[in-house]
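W.,

You were right to be curious about this one. When I first looked at the sequence I had no strong expectations either way, so I just let the prediction run and decided to look at it fresh. Below is the sequence, 324 residues in total, followed by the output.
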Amino acid sequence: MPAITVQQTPDSQRAARRLYGFLSNQPPSWYGLGILLLVAWATRPALLSPLLLLAILKQGAILGVVTIGQSLVVRSRSIDLSISGVVVVVIWIVTSGAIPLPVPALVFLALLSGALIGTINGLIITRLRASAVVVTLAMAIVLTGSVVAASQYHQPGETPDLLRIVGSGRIGSLPIAAIVWVAVLIPFALSLRTCVFGRYLDAVGSNPTAATVSGIPSLRVMSITHIFSGLTTALAALLLVGSVSVGNTNIGQDMVLNSLAAVILGGVSFGSGKGRMLGPAVGAFMLTYLFSLLIGFGLGAAGQAMVQGAIIALAALVFTFRSR
């Protein structure tokens, strides 16, 4: 009996190519999150319950807000390593009691401090043509040292009630922190797709020299991304200190590497000028879910650190292959 062969029609071939193109263009964070959900379904089904998913979403909102600013900076061919310094400054401002202002004024001052730090980073990098890695890393060290010195006189203390409500409260079953994350994410995502700044950012990330020759203010665009990064980091620090209910200069130190991993796994890479906001957001949730899954497996701090290092190495490999 002759073998039966199935020939694909041109329409089916085009559909298959479109499907392959769609799947291949999705950031690695989508596939990583899918794998984690399958692992949880097979080994820890309790982690798929709506209550736990909402709790993980609340934790992921902090990293997600930081990732928004970091993704903008990376798209502009820069990097922000001053995140840990901004976090400790914000925590000290709102919990030390050294500044006799009402809580709303302290929140405004904290956000203003983050934007100011981002402005300084952007000016030094763009005007002096200094290395973004060196400048932002030095800024983190200076800020952390300054807060440690100031803490000898005014140590971080309890978190104000307003920040506790925002960081740990809920509206119905939805965490307020997650609502804040979405409220910040959506305007950034829409503006990058519809506003001139988004097109400028794509051009600068793809080829800054060509963008400058074309009349695009490349240095200004890069400076603005650093301002946004400092601002979103300050907001994330407010959510963080609200969730832990007490000030501590040692929390939030892992945000730098985790935000970079989320950005790269989310499809944003240096020098490509491409990438959207949703991929890094999924990457932030994926990393948070991964750490919750590791805790469910009983891994301690050492095991979590090893897996975190492996994730960062994976992000570096993803960046390398996407660049090629």
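Here's what jumped out at me. The chain has a mean pLDDT of 84. And, maybe more interesting for your project: The two ends are 48 Å apart (CA to CA).

Coffee later to discuss?

I.
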